[in-house]
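Hallway conversation turned thread

IA: we were arguing at lunch whether anyone had actually written out Protein translocase subunit SecE end to end. Turns out nobody had. So, for the record, here is the sequence (67 residues) and right after it the structure tokens. Reply here if something looks off.
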Amino acid sequence: MGDTVNNEGAQKRSFFKGLKAEFHKIVWPDKDTVTKQTIAVVSASIALGLVIAIIDLIIKFGLSFIL
């Protein structure tokens, strides 16, 4: 059979070099942007929760009225 060369160590180093290079390409948002986006997500979640709760109450009262 043929001889195989163990390149496992070189492959791991190459992988981590590539990973490090990709992490350097990431553009992280500043604190102001993160704050605004967080407020938007929390507000939308609360609004959607209220809409679902109101629809649930309407359906509940409607069914109790019918039955």
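OS: looked through it. Residues 31-66 form the longest helix (36 residues).
IA: good, adding that to the notes. The two ends are 81 Å apart (CA to CA).
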